[in-house]
Amino acid sequence: MKAEYAWLSLYLATVLLATLVHDPLWLALGLVAVLLLSGRQAPALLRRSLRVILPFNLAVSLGYLLLAHLHAIPPWETLLRINLRVLAITLLTFLFIARVNLFRALAFSPTLTWLLGLAYSQAMSFARAHADFRLALVSRSIVRPRLRDRYRASAAAAAWFMDKGLASARETAQALRARGFFGD
Amino acid sequence: MIELAGISHRYNGAPALVDIQFSIAAGEKLVLLGANGAGKSTLLKILDGLIHPDTGSYRYKGEPIDPRRLKAPALNRRFRAEVALLFQNPDAMLFNPTVYDEIAFGPRQLGLTDIDARVRHWAGVMGLDNMLDRLPFSLSGGEKQKLALAALLANDPQLLLLDEPAAALDPRSTGWLVDFLADLPCTVLTTTHNLSLAPEFGSRVLVLGEDHRLIHDGPIEAFLADPERLVAANLVHSHRHRHGALEHRHYHLHDWS
Question: Which of A132, A150, A152 to probe the B interface (max B CBs under 10 A)?
Answer without folding.
Answer: A132
